[in-house]
Design brief:
globular; 3-stranded antiparallel β-sheet; Nuclear Transport Factor 2, Chain: A; alpha+beta; two-stranded antiparallel sheet
Length: about 150
């Protein structure tokens, strides 16, 4: 008897399942409900990029609001200087806490504020974490550009 090789992966998120990869096709023979490791990583990168390119309205909230979608996004650090170690540490801490709150597939999150990309004028940060979903439990590092994404598209 030949056993089918089971691919390692995890369940897709609701919004990922709702995306129509082939809008011209009227029905799907295999509904999209499972991510491979690579697809899961791409989903996390997209969600974290969207999260960090969203600004929340206030710096501080009470405990109930912090755990709700009203606190979604990161603080506006427009007045911060990339040349200031204190400002870089504050930005890194805000990013770390924001990712911990809103991306449950990542644990052990650490953040490096890297540089400004001169061509897009976006802040580049590197996120290191453990990716945990389904049977996946692996180290995962990726870059995010903050401020370069066009919003509302």
């Amino acid at each position: 008897m030949v056993l089918a090789k089971q691919e390692i992966g995890a369940r897709a998120l609701l919004f990922d399942m709702l995306v129509d990869e082939n809008p011209g096709q009227l029905s799907e023979s295999n509904p999209f409900r499972f991510f491979t490791v690579e697809q899961l990583q791409q989903s996390v990168i997209k969600e974290v990029t969207d999260l960090l390119n969203t600004r929340r309205s206030f710096l501080k909230f009470d405990d109930v609001v912090w755990r709700s979608t009203l606190a979604y996004g990161m603080a506006d650090h427009a007045g911060a200087s990339i040349n200031s170690e204190n400002d870089k540490a504050l930005i890194a801490e805000d990013i770390q806490q924001t990712v911990k709150r809103f991306e449950p597939r990542l644990t052990g999150v650490t953040v490096e504020v890297s540089e400004i990309d001169s061509s897009s004028e976006s802040l580049i940060v590197i996120i290191h974490a453990t990716l945990k979903a389904g049977k996946i439990n692996q180290q995962f590092s990726f870059q995010v550009a903050i401020g370069s994404e066009p919003q509302g598209e």
